[in-house]
């Protein structure tokens, strides 16, 4: 028993962190930088030799940076499905942008810009090129995710995965990665808020000395730390093929989504009017948190999955 | 990450499970916070000791099994899973004993630990006072130098099971009042000593499990000072980490309550309760994962400091939520006396004892986040 990120998994997150320390925009340059560090192929068979244990720390690092890149879609879900295809090289070097949609009714992140699409329907995952789909860009709260609605033909594309378990694995990896991103986003919002309330003075003292502010932040730190542990446990369950992997993954997503939402709320409140402006960076993390909390299944959906697995009436 | 148990740990789990299945009292014992219930609990804990399950993580010379922290967690999980009685010796086992291991003299350890393990000496915690609850550094009970020891005078209160215990460990002021926490000393006091008066009183749940302890010029020899004179605060705080987090509230307790909640929901629940029940179960799982993370860190030499406050905030609020959810499921039946209503009333104490949650939030904000004190 050892509840600690293994060295190989920590090393991958550190490699990503090294890129992000030097570069946080524009997003396509960051993406190519991450590609250069070998981050994108983490779960591709025959590449880094890693399993889902690498996702929580890596995604936490990427979420913390808040960059608008299809991390969950490409690293956790899409790229590992392309192992046999010639397009893999372009995806892994960052020159070809890939996104994923397992729910073609919903707006698809990064779809307005993507070159390749892995689309799930029923028990089948198919790969489409941009020109094979109908793409309608959508305005959204987090504008950096470049949402679009897809119109997917019933035929065509290249089948990159088949069978309920293959689709389930892709889904669970996407959920896990998104939960990891949310934990990282939450951590970043706490850091920004702590820095702000330490220096911002009202009534002659830093606002961070007020108990109401302290308690608001302490509560979200508790939520985030417990969500983080649950995301790590879900990553291990996926890698180990535990029987209750689905429940653990859904539980982690519920906790991470709720924690990130609470944190966004507390962070904006503790910043006062400064939190309600786009001239300050907090809004970017908050908007990403709202988007990701609802993406890959929101808390209500995952809570219902847990309830069903537990046999609740 | 590797969350698999070793074959040795699995064997330990099986041994604990089998013994508990054969020995856990049935029907359940009456509350250990009543005089009659306390006696029944003592008989159980002595049985536990005889089979060397009372203090599994202690060295064998004191009555333990030398079990690892992981094995201790396994034992706790099995203990709660088996529906075994709450430990009425917990203040001695989980709060005083870790302090003795760390700060006690060899003589004190040899004299006191085996009697704690065997449920012979029953210890109450004498920290809180009428004017010093969360502001413990304001306590007024005093100790003055006497020939070969100290004379203690003061008033302790909200002492859990104080009316049934044989001994008290407590903090007393050995320097000026304005020195706050810098002039306190940790004393071990027999409750049958001349000058001690104990008065039991009822808690919110109706059990007589509280007591106030009056000390009027009570003599305590030097041999019963724990740690250095004037260092009582340091000695006490070094073990509050255990109280707030791990040893007082192992995950097994909440995992078991969550399982009982699931059973109740399957029995009487409707779709209206589904979300709350699922969330309570999710939170109990989260407490387990966080604890495993902490134990890994401790096993790697990490000292748990302010992080214990994260755990305390989480488990105490979780316990209330688990019981509130059960009350929702029970509807009008929730008002009836029974394990759930009893558990609900007791859960309300969690956010208060071992340092109120308001204090814990301040600790998180100031020590983990670095926010300014006022």
Automatic annotation (TrEMBL), chain A:
Keyword RNA-binding belongs to the record: no
Record keyword Flavoprotein present: yes
This protein's UniProt keywords: FAD, Flavoprotein, Oxidoreductase
One GO MF term: acyl-CoA dehydrogenase activity
SUPFAM superfamilies: Acyl-CoA dehydrogenase C-terminal domain-like (SSF47203)
Gene3D superfamilies attached to this UniProt entry: Butyryl-CoA Dehydrogenase, subunit A, domain 3
InterPro entries membership: AcylCo_DH-like_C (IPR036250), AcylCo_DH/oxidase_C (IPR009075)
Domain Acyl-CoA dehydrogenase/oxidase C-terminal: 161-310
Name recorded for this polypeptide: Acyl-CoA dehydrogenase
Automatic annotation (TrEMBL), chain B:
Record keywords, A-Z: FAD, Flavoprotein, Oxidoreductase
Cofactors, names only: FAD
Domain Acyl-CoA dehydrogenase/oxidase N-terminal: 6-120
Family annotation (SUPFAM superfamilies): Acyl-CoA dehydrogenase C-terminal domain-like (SSF47203), Acyl-CoA dehydrogenase NM domain-like (SSF56645)
Acyl-CoA oxidase/dehydrogenase middle domain residues: 124-218
Gene Ontology, cellular component aspect: plasma membrane
GO molecular function terms listed in the Swiss-Prot or TrEMBL record: flavin adenine dinucleotide binding; oxidoreductase activity, acting on the CH-CH group of donors
Highest rank taxon of the organism: Bacteria
Residue ranges of every copy of the Acyl-CoA dehydrogenase/oxidase C-terminal domain listed in the record: 230-369
Pfam families: Acyl-CoA_dh_1 (PF00441), Acyl-CoA_dh_M (PF02770), Acyl-CoA_dh_N (PF02771)
Family recorded in the similarity comment: Belongs to the acyl-CoA dehydrogenase family.
PANTHER family hit by this protein: ACYL-COA DEHYDROGENASE, ACYL-COA DEHYDROGENASE FADE29
Protein name: Acyl-CoA dehydrogenase family protein
């Amino acid at each position: 028993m050892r509840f600690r990120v293994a060295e190989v998994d920590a090393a991958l997150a550190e490699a990503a962190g090294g890129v992000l320390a030097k570069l946080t925009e524009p997003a396509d340059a960051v993406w190519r930088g991450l590609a250069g560090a070998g981050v994108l192929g983490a779960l591709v068979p025959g590449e880094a030799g890693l399993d889902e244990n690498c996702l929580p720390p890596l995604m936490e690092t990427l979420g913390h940076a808040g960059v608008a890149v299809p991390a969950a879609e490409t690293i956790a879900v899409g790229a590992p499905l392309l192992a046999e295809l010639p397009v893999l090289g372009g995806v892994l070097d960052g020159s070809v942008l890939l996104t994923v949609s397992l729910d073609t009714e919903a707006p698809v992140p990064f779809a307005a810009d993507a070159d390749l699409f892995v689309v799930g329907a029923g028990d089948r995952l198919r790969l489409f090129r941009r020109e094979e789909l109908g793409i309608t860009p959508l305005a959204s709260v987090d504008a950096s995710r470049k949402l679009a609605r897809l119109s997917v033909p019933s035929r065509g594309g290249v089948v990159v995965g088949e069978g309920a378990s293959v689709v389930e694995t892709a889904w669970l990896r996407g959920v896990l990665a998104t939960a990891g991103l949310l934990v990282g986003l939450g951590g970043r919002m706490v850091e920004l808020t702590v820095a702000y309330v330490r220096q911002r003075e009202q009534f002659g003292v830093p606002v961070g000395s007020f108990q109401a502010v302290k308690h608001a932040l302490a509560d979200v730190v508790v939520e985030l730390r417990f969500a983080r542990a649950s995301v790590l446990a879900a990553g291990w369950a996926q890698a180990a093929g535990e029987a209750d992997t689905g429940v653990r993954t859904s539980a982690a997503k519920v906790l991470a989504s709720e924690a990130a939402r609470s944190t966004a709320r507390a962070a904006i409140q503790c910043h006062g009017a400064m939190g309600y402006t786009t001239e300050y960076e907090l809004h970017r993390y908050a908007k990403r948190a709202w988007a990701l909390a609802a993406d890959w299944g929101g808390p209500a959906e995952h809570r219902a999955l847990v309830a069903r697995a537990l046999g609740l009436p | 990450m590797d969350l698999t148990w070793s074959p040795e740990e699995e064997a330990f789990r099986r041994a604990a499970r089998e013994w508990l299945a054969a020995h856990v009292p049935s029907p359940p014992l009456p509350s250990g916070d009543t005089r009659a219930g306390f006696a029944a609990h003592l008989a159980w804990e002595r049985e536990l000791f005889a089979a060397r399950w009372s203090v599994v993580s202690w060295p064998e010379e004191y009555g333990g099994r030398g079990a690892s922290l992981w094995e201790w967690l396994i034992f706790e999980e099995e203990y709660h899973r088996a529906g075994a009685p709450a430990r009425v010796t917990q203040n001695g086992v989980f709060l005083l004993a870790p302090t003795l291991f760390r700060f006690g003299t060899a003589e004190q350890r040899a004299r006191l630990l085996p009697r704690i393990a065997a449920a012979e000496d029953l210890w109450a915690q004498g920290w809180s006072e009428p004017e010093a609850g969360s502001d413990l550094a304001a306590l007024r009970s005093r100790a003055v130098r006497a020939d070969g020891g100290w004379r203690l005078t003061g008033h302790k209160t909200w002492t859990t099971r104080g009316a049934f215990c044989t001994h008290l460990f407590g903090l007393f002021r050995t320097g000026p009042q304005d020195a706050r926490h810098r002039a306190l000393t940790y004393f071990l006091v027999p409750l049958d000593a001349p000058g001690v008066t104990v008065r039991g009183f009822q808690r919110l749940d109706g059990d007589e499990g509280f007591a106030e302890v009056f000390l009027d010029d009570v003599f305590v020899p030097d041999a019963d000072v724990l740690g250095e004179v004037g260092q009582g605060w340091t000695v006490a705080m070094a073990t509050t980490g255990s109280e707030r987090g791990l040893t007082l509230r192992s995950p097994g307790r909440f995992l078991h309550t969550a399982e009982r909640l699931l059973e109740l929901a399957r029995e009487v629940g409707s779709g209206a309760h589904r979300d709350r029940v699922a969330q309570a179960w999710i939170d109990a799982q989260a407490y387990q994962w966080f604890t495993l993370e902490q134990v890994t860190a401790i096993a790697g030499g990490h000292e748990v400091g302010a992080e214990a406050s994260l755990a305390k905030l989480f488990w105490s609020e979780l316990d209330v939520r688990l019981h509130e959810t059960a009350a929702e499921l029970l509807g009008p039946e929730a008002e009836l006396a029974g394990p759930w209503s009893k558990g609900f009333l007791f859960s309300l104490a969690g956010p208060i004892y071992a340092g109120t949650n308001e204090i814990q939030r301040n600790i998180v904000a100031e020590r983990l986040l670095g926010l300014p004190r006022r």
